[in-house]
Request: fold
Amino acid sequence: MPDQDIHGGGCHCGAVRFEVTGSLPAFTACHCSQCRTWSGHYWAAAPVPHAAFRLTCGDGLAWHRSSNHARRGFCRDCGASLFWQDDAEAQIAVAGGAFDGPTSSRLTRHIFTDCAGDYYTPAAPPPLATPRSGRLTAGCLCGGVSFTLPGPARAVTACHCHQCRRLSGHFSASFDVDDAQLSYTARETLKSYRTAGGGERGFCGACGASLWFRARDGGFSVEAGCIRGATGGQLEEHIFTSEKGDYYEIADGLPQHPEW
Ligand SMILES: [Zn+2]
Ligand SMILES: [Zn+2]
Ligand SMILES: [Zn+2]
Reply:
């Protein structure tokens, strides 16, 4: 009998690892406000039956109860957004960005598209940026981290690099800000993760929401998904598309750069 397909995956730092046996179901992209805050852009996952799913390392796994019927699993060490679990279902939604290799599956559905951010349109050109002045408010799902920053977001960049894909669960979208202009109103649960490239990624240690990235050279960007309400920004380009997942296409007509 031939070996069944095994799809390995995990978080960025390796403290959470899993295996899925058999072919992967189709992926669904969710644009609800929770998935957007949590992932930093929007989240995409495949519903894997419990019988096909095996956690092989749960050292870093933490759960955030995100509603009265569901919880979200993330890595408490690196903040990767990994799993969504409905209490009543014998399946677990596993992030597309978490898989090690090709998934050989497809993203076939976008849901809660009416909750998409103002800076993009799922699989279509982004809407024109709406003029907006004043400060933006941002924060995580659980309320442990919140901050304000100068608006509008202006140019938003989507990054499909391996690191962004692991950490966000799909791919990231962020915009540059002067970090001296950030003003925290809550930061009890703020954690940061040091990346191999000398960068630092801010996330909530209690709910796993993706918040910001500080590059080695000091450049600072905020994840567009953690902004509450309108950003006044507009997605302008995709970078590191040579590292994008095999389960989705970039279909919004924006410029794509294989590297940066
Ligand atoms: Zn991790
Ligand atoms: Zn939180
Ligand atoms: Zn990236």
